[in-house]
Amino acid sequence: MTVDEMVEQINSALNDEGEYTIVASNESGTLTLTSLRTGEEAEITLEDGTDTLNLATLGLTAGTTNGTTTEVETTGAEIVVGSTSADTINLSIATLTCEALGIDELDVSTEEGAAEALSVLDMAIDQISAARAELGAEMSRFEFRSAQIDTSVENLEAAESAIADVDIAAEQASLSSSSVKVQAAVAAATQANEMPQNLLSLVQ
Question: Which domain holds residue 88?
Answer without folding.
Answer: 74-157
